[in-house]
Amino acid sequence: MTYDRLVCANCAAPVSEGRCPVCRANRERLQQQESFLANLNPMALIALLAVLVAAVALLAHQTA
């Protein structure tokens, strides 16, 4: 989610403008989350998914 359309409950201004301390804090927090998601490597996600599938298959095999 981006903060472009969010409205601050404290000052009723768009969060992207950062008019009050609450806006600025939330804007900073959202920017940090966006940068984390933007830096994810697709191959890392595929590897994580493969490990998850292997773990589920191993658990299914052990319970059968």
Structure explained in plain terms:
The chain is mainly alpha-helical and 64 residues long. The protein has one domain. It is 62% helix and 0% strand. It has helices at 21-38, 42-63. The longest helix has 22 residues, at 42-63.
CA-CA gap between termini: 42 Å
Oligomer: single chain
Q: Secondary-structure element sequence?
A: HH
Which value, in Å, is the CA radius of gyration?
A: 20 Å
Please give the largest β-sheet.
none
Structural class: mainly alpha
The amount of helix comes to: 55-70%
Strand content: under 5%
Number of domains: 1
> Which regions have little confidence, pLDDT < 50, spanning 5+ residues?
none
Q: Provide mean pLDDT, rounded.
A: 83
How is this structure best summarized?
The chain has two helices and no strands. It has helices at about 20-40, 40-64.
Topology diagram in text:
Layout lengths: L20 H18 L3 H22 L1
Based on the model shown, name its key terms.
64 residues, mainly alpha, 2 helices, 62% helix, transmembrane
